[in-house]
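Lecture notes, unit on protein representations.

Consider one protein chain, 136 amino acids long.
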Amino acid sequence: MKRRSFLKALFAVLGTASVSSFAYPLIRYLAPPGSSDMDKKVVLVKADIPVGGSKIILFNDKPVIVINRPGRGFIALSKVCTHLGCLVEYEKDKNRLICPCHAGTYDLEGNVLSGPPPRPLPKVTLKVEGEQLIIG
């Protein structure tokens, strides 16, 4: 191989690698994530969550808390605080959710009671079918 041909091939490979290193992140940023991994339903057994109890699950790779509210039934809420993204904790004895980072508090409907959170906790779709809870 002649020196000129070798340099052309080398620059072609380096140019392709450079363009790819910029194009791939740009395409990943602009293209929406595939729906194959998202929106998978999670099925729980009702008996696993007693009245007043809760269970933490991952739904679409995000933490969700499922609470069996006394007298009101089940609800599924995002566990991510709407203020700065800390994970809220369920205080069973006080019937509320509290963010340990800045003491934001939510009721068991996800509404803000006090503190800096600007919005309620997002609700996640939950259906009760027989003895099962279907989240998603």
